[in-house]
Fold this sequence. Notes:
Blueprint: E1 3-7, H1 9-18, H2 25-34, E2 39-43, H3 53-62, E3 67-71, H4 75-84, E4 88-91, H5 112-123, E5 127-132, H6 136-144, E6 149-153, H7 155-160, H8 164-183, E7 187-191, H9 199-202, E8 208-213, H10 215-245
Parallel strand pairs: 1-2, 1-8, 2-3, 3-4, 4-5, 5-6, 6-7, 7-8
Helix pairs in contact: 2-3, 6-8
The protein binds pyridoxine-5'-phosphate.
Amino acid sequence: xxxxxxxxxxxxxxxxxxxxxxxxxxxxxxxxxxxxxxxxxxxxxxxxxxxxxxxxxxxxxxxxxxxxxxxxxxxxxxxxxxxxxxxxxxxxxxxxxxxxxxxxxxxxxxxxxxxxxxxxxxxxxxxxxxxxxxxxxxxxxxxxxxxxxxxxxxxxxxxxxxxxxxxxxxxxxxxxxxxxxxxxxxxxxxxxxxxxxxxxxxxxxxxxxxxxxxxxxxxxxxxxxxxxxxxxxxxxxxxxxxxxxxxxxxxx
Length: 252
Ligand code: PXP
């Protein structure tokens, strides 16, 4: 079975827009698990633009499936991950000015601190996944550096949309990368930019074990939830109007 890990970052994006307490990504994570998610993914960014430290701490207590913490390879994040002990840490490149993670991690040009970080996290019992472009050298370096998993960056595939030539090239790269990763004993995961339109084909990648999907699922949740949310508010107002009509809200 291909596991679905739901990324709840964008529930926190809506909350942080108001610095409010709702919507809570912890509640969304619990509902996602009840609906069949096999894991919950969060990216604790250095600028804390969406997920906060508190979210990860509470999720560690409440997630019943698998907690996957995406983070940059910094001393602060390593210390935090070791405290929290998620089942999986996914190391990603991070730039403050980017809207979302732009490219994969450069493992080939990787510094010694990347290798050390992987070793440290693995020694503490965590799986370590590297978010990389579907590039054979990146895969080989990931295996050499001691990662347990790789997450193939599906962004270029997703951006190809209906351009069949670019789409087929992007898919072929993912396919070759998945085969090489499996040959080297790495667990094959994939994610970024996956939607209700482009996930079907990705499910056919060889040896695929996990998908990480966020923005599209949270976007759809808002759209399919609007009707119910408005009905609930309309009912609440109707109820108060009825009370007013029967003199129930009088102040005398
Ligand atoms: N995988 C990684 C490593 C990511 O950084 C992200 C975005 O946070 C995702 C998957 C999910 O991407 P999307 O929100 O486009 O589904």
